[in-house]
Amino acid sequence: MSTPDVVVVGGGAIGLSIAWRSRQRGLEVAVVDERFGHGASWAAGGMLAPVAEVHYGEKAVLELNLESSRRYPRFAEELAAASGRDVGYRQSGTLIVAPDGDDFAALSDLFAFQQRLGLDVRKLKPSEARAIEPALAPSIRGAFFVEGDHHVDNRLLVGALEAACRRSGARLIEGVVAEVTTSAERATGVRLEGGTAIDAGSVVLAAGSWSGRIAGIPERARPPIRPVKGQLLYLKGSEGAPLVTRSVRGLDVYIVPRTDGRIAVGATVEEKDFDDTITADAVYTLLRDAYELVPGLRELELLELVVGFRPGSPDNAPLLGSSALEGLVIASGHYRNGILLTPVTADEIAHLLATGETSETIAPFTPTRFAAASMEAV
Ligand code: GLY
Fold first, then answer.
1. Is 10 in contact with 35 (CB distance < 8 Å)?
2. Is the pLDDT of residue 372 over 90?
3. Is the Cβ atom of 307 under 6 angstroms away from ligand 1?
4. Considering only CA atoms, which residue is closest to atom 1 of ligand 1?
5. Nearest to 242 by CA among 151, 309, 378
6. In ligand 1, which atom is closest to the CA atom of 267?
7. What are phi and psi of 205, to 5 degrees?
8. Helix %, strand %, coil % for the chain, to 5?
9. Among residues 254, 265, 257, 266, which one has the least CA distance to residue 238?
10. Structural contact between residues 157 and 82, judged by C-beta atoms closer than 8 angstroms
11. b/e burial code for range 191-224 (CB count within 10 A of at least 16 → b)
């Protein structure tokens, strides 16, 4: 095998999209994963909700999320053309719904915050919300509509990325990366379990929650990433007569329709390292909270329970760009926004790999920010 310009560690939405965009820029690319597209990208909800999921104190992440959301229509269109597949991107907005007075008070505070940030959110009466989503519970206390927050079928997306990578000539290598190899203080490639070495001009670390645990990376360049467990379930709805046609979310639950009629209900947020147990309490809590918003979900068949690990960083912002080890680029730590941040991450990391320049868009998210003694939150 000739030496590629880039070897990407991790074949989820982030790694595959970087590989695809890098191929479009003429780079030779190899991607390594044990099972492509079956990590956090498989377990994700597919919400593209920078406004509905805005968090207090995370302004820089909000800007990046909004930028990626703006890039989604073109990204989805180009990917569909490159892969020959529908990626299940639907621009139908998101309803934030309060089932009772307590949640309405909390969501009204969030609405005030969203308004202060100049975000596009509209307050609806219960009757107005039910007019656009008739399956909402008659008892809901109030709702807010975010016209610009959409959703994508993350499994279709990652399948399309894999197809686009193969069509574009990226080499997809099934294997487990045992270590990043180095020589004279720079990354030179990876070695797989079993011993195969892949030398490359640059190594991109896009291994999600596992990014901090790969051997061979010196401490100064190791990303401080931890797994944040999420449990999610799928219900079988009707393709012809969907119960809901847009994302519906409450304070602690979201309900996302798929184009084939399935409905994703997610997700827990748990600091449990890599514990992949599906718990009765998580299933109970998710369904209880979802029924309060859309009671008709009770009638649906339970299809699947799934666990994923969001790659969390100390400031909840991603790590994007060159690391403290020459030749090692990091694209990880996307936490709750991996699917949303796929377009902007792919564009900007491919730009860095092709030109050596870090764009202004990702400069605030430099992985080296954690090396400084006085770390400032992004
Ligand atoms: N962004 C949804 C989640 O992390 O569950």
1. no
2. no
3. no
4. 336
5. 151
6. 5
7. -95, 105
8. 35, 25, 40
9. 257
10. no
11. bbeeeeebbbbbbbbbbbbbbbebebbeeebbbb
Residue from 151, 335, 336 to probe ligand 1 pocket by mutation (most atoms less than 8 Å from CB)? 336
The tokens describing 277, both together, are 């147990």
Q: What's the full length of the chain, in residues?
A: 378
Give one DSSP letter per residue of 194-249, joined into a string. TS-EEE-SEEEE--GGGGGG-BT--GGG----EEEEEEEEEEE--SSS-S-SSEEE
Domain boundaries defined on the chain: 6-65+155-224+314-377, 94-147+226-312
Ligand 1 atom, smallest distance to 269 CA: 5
Determine the distance separating the centroid of ligand 1 and the alpha carbon of 313, expressed in angstroms: 14
Please report the DSSP string for 10-29 in residue order.
Answer: --SHHHHHHHHHHHHTT--E
Question: Confidence band (pLDDT; 50, 70, 90) for 111?
Answer: very high
Summarize the confidence of residues 112-123 as an average pLDDT: 97
User: For residue 373, what pLDDT is reported?
Assistant: 44
Ligand 1: distance of its center to the CA of 167 in Å? 30
Q: Can you tell me the mean pLDDT for 111-117?
A: 96
User: Measured at the alpha carbon of residue 27, what is the angle toward residues 4 and 164, in degrees to the nearest 5?
Assistant: 100
- The per-residue pLDDT for range 52-102, each reduced to its tens digit, is 999 988 899 999 999 999 999 999 999 999 999 999 999 999 999 999 999
For domain 94-147+226-312, the CATH architecture is 2-Layer Sandwich (3.30)
Class of the domain covering 6-65+155-224+314-377 = alpha beta
Q: What's the pLDDT score for residue 341?
A: 98
